[in-house]
Amino acid sequence: MSHxxxxxxxxxxxxAAATLAFIFPRLGRWLAFGTAGAVSIAFARLTRLLLxxxxxxxRVGGWGAPLGIDLRADGLAVFMLLITTAIGxxxxxxxxxxxxxxxxxxxxHQERYFWPLFLLLWSALNALLLSTDIFNxxxxxxxxxxxxxxxIALDGRRAALTAALRYLFVxxxxxxxxxxxxxxxxxxxxxxxxxxxATRAQPGFPLTIAIALMTGGLLVKSAxxxxxxxxxxxHANAPAPVSALLSALVVKGSFYIMLRLWFEAxxxxxxxxxxxxxxxxxxxxxxxxxxxxxxxxxxxxxxxxSTVAQLGYLFLLFPLAAGHEGRFTAxxxxxxxxxxxxxxxxxxxLSAGNVVRARGGRDEIAHLEGxxxxxxxxxxxxxxxxxxxxxxxxxxxxxxxxxxxxAGLAAGQGWWVAVILIGSLLAAAYVARVLVHGFTRxxxxxxxxxNSPLMEWTALALAILAAGMGFLSVWLTDxxxxxxxxxxxxxxxxxx
Amino acid sequence: xxxxxxxLYLIAGAAxxxxxxxxxxxxxxxxxxxxxxxxxxxxxxxxxxxYSARTAGSIPDPVPHAMVITGIVVSICATGLALVLAECxxxxxxxxxxSDERETSEHTGARPDTSDEQHQDQSP
Amino acid sequence: xxxxxxxxxLLLCAAAFFFVSGTVGLLRLPDIYSxxxxxxxADNVGLGLxxxxxxxxxxxxxxxxxxxxxxxxxxxxxxxxCYLIGNEAHRRGQRPRRxxxx
Amino acid sequence: xxxxxxxxxxxxxxxxxxxxxxxxDLFRGTVSFIxxxxxxxxxxxxxxxxxxxxxxxxxxxxxxxxxxxxxxVRMRRRGRDAPRPNHAGGAIPRRLIGVLLLxxxxxxxxxxxxxxxxxxxxxxxxxxxxxxxxxxxxVTAVLLxxxxxxxxxxxxVLLLAIVGVWSLRRAEWPGDVRESYPLLMPLLRIVLPTLVLAAAYVLWIGTSxxxxxxxxGALAGGAFVLMLLGGFGRRALRHRYRMRVALxxxxxxxxxASVGTMLLTGEILRYPAGFAGHWILAIEAAALISIACxxxxxxxxxxxxxxxxxxxxxxxxNGSKNGSMGR
Lengths: 496, 124, 102, 327
Prior knowledge:
The structure holds four protein chains of four kinds.
Chain A: H1 4-23, H2 28-53, E1 56-60, E2 69-73, H3 75-98, H4 105-130, H5 134-153, H6 158-189, H7 194-200, H8 205-221, H9 231-237, H10 240-265, H11 272-294, H12 299-315, H13 317-320, H14 327-358, H15 371-374, H16 376-390, H17 396-410, H18 415-439, H19 453-481
Antiparallel strand pairs in A: 1-2
Helix pairs in contact in A: 1-2, 1-4, 2-3, 2-4, 3-4, 3-10, 3-14, 3-19, 4-5, 4-10, 5-6, 5-10, 6-8, 6-9, 7-10, 8-10, 9-10, 9-12, 10-14, 11-12, 11-18, 12-14, 12-18, 14-16, 14-17, 14-19, 16-18, 16-19, 17-18, 17-19
Chain B: H1 6-26, H2 30-53, H3 62-93, H4 101-105
Helix pairs in contact in B: 1-2, 2-3
Chain C: H1 2-28, H2 32-57, H3 61-91
Helix pairs in contact in C: 1-2, 2-3
């Protein structure tokens, strides 16, 4: 009973606010502000309930699986909600100043539609994280994908619209593959509930195909090589707050569903070879994405390719969390890395947005001279976020990579360690490349177009969060332990 | 109860999905891709409905039916969005196909804030 | 009962004949106006025969009424659509093919 | 006999699908697609899914076809790009695609045919709970009671679609047909009220027989499209809040019902015992209005100009045949 309100305000508050923001466009920012408050309170309550009473399950409609749909808040869900709430609120604050109707009618138009789309995206994310029903997840995925596409298109320029359309095609076809997988799973197991699937799934050809289809669709949505091609143009051409949301949260939504499927619903059906395949693709993404980032000419494209690379690390979780030893270490390492990447990447896109905006839309890296003196706070935020991407202590990136390294060594899969190290060096190179240009003194004073302090400080706050997340990693790991999938904790007691 | 052979319908469903995927990968015109997605969707729905109808009892399983109705509504929303987005892209680029990846990602040069490339139509 | 069934069968066969000839006309006739003839006239007769055949098998008067309603809707729709297509073709400058020409 | 019917139906479906996607002329392809939708609706009837058949015939074939056709016409009018069959495109060589997809097809067939051994499903559970669900049509029970949360999100998708379309561009009104097609108007005068009546009937009957909010909404949406084609209702569309409220009332009522049921019963969308039918009908009625408006406005393909809402109005209502694209 007591958790129903939290579940409801997590999902329904942004939804209702989005509807109202559509009807009354002028209230958009206030509605978003109120939503951030409501979601934060609901999140705090949910966390307390989880820590006091364990996993919280809410049966929508009172039916319960398999007939009804269950919502569930376990450690993983609350962990992801924490990231979503923090970044959602930060992006909300940033966007309050980013879109300014007084500057031009085009921005007035953007502001008017940004709020309902942003709030719909937020409720889609919360609904996705709390759902345990794979068909319901399909609906949330579509809601998430559509709102992401439309937010990109809000930019209005040719490159953004083209990228948005490509993203829409990719996203729709991936969703259909996922849905086909759901159809086969339902026929085979007579349920679409994750928890029940864990007990009913039997190995066999149909389910193998179904899992392959769902995984394939989700991989494309989470931009793992070779399904990454849509991501850089989409993330680089969107308005800055949107880029932050996309790179930090949206791609993680589909990754989250993969975690649920592989470790919760069908752990018995996953072969080590499949995990290694994902790990291998992830390793390729780490190297390929970082190399591409290194040679980009535009700042936002560099940051976007860095997302391709960093997402690759997440997939190292699949082989490592299925290894002989250190499964939970790998799991928590991957997720802490995810959290820190979300904060760092959001901070990077926001600070890049500040820099680009102050330069009247120009974002060539070669022309970043004077960035450090003109936008000191944003430059500092970019650098701090870069530390986390590289993985220097005490950042969350360091904590995550450290846990992954430990798991890799414990499982005797040392080759992943090499990938992590090479990836870090490449990340250091591309972050340094930006900063070197940024710290060059400007030959002539650049165009003075100061940003609102709120925009600068929001970016910095997220960067500090990412860079200091190492201190939180113990607490985060404890949180992840609540209701963690059984497969991660071997009966012999190998978990740390 | 009417007799029907579910295998026929399943194969037809698989064929629709494959044809849709083929067209999606092989053609580049926006409208063809949108049609392809719809055909693919119909294939997926056919699989779901066929399974629901196989139950021996007198009434087919209503759960997949509800899922398909949801899916149909989602797919018309997707179609509507994709069509409008495609028209916007055509209005800006003059083309009805997505340009190559290279073209988009190596988009260099200044991107002034209010160039005539700006698509939105706020100018009175 | 048997009489009704036989009658239904006959009507359906006649309907099939009209449908087939309408389709053949659609495929074989030379220009858009004559194809419209084939499509709307022959097919409407075919549908009418089908409706009558189904009425003979109907179990209640409300079913008969629904069938009549369906037929009325289809008739009015097809008449209007035929007109719209013909009109549009005419506006675009499509000329009816005259005998002897071409 | 029926086997033969199925075989012919499915072969035609597959051929039409191929043709609609690969015809050199896009217009013909789209027409094939509409025909395909109708045949698929027949297939749903054969598979004993009349609810889905209704939705498919109205939405999947009718409205989708209308959307694509009107977009095609607009794109051709803008037309710097002649529609060509484009058999050269694609980053991946066609033959490779063909081989991969053949493999996929065989895998799918293999997996799906093997599933024949498990004829399970939730039929029994769904039917056993039917008396408590407040309706007697099982599909409506799933949509609005057992899995009502899915439907809530689906209504949100509809709202999202319209917000998105409005954010992208301004509407181009279809040309006014009143003068050019005098015969259309009498038909519309008969058909529009009938369609609205039929939509209400389908909504009402949906509690016990095939039908429901989506099917009814699709019918009413079709009526909306016809209305726009006939040039009615433009003034109403320009009204400041009325249209937006109509578009979002479905979602608002659904959310209110979720919160209300949670306060009453402690669980989201668990209807108070004995009153489930009333709640469902109220939600469906609001949803029908929103669905109808959404589908109709999707056809318009952009936001209608609104009076005094930030968007400048550059033409008077009566004189405007085509909305401006701004450039």
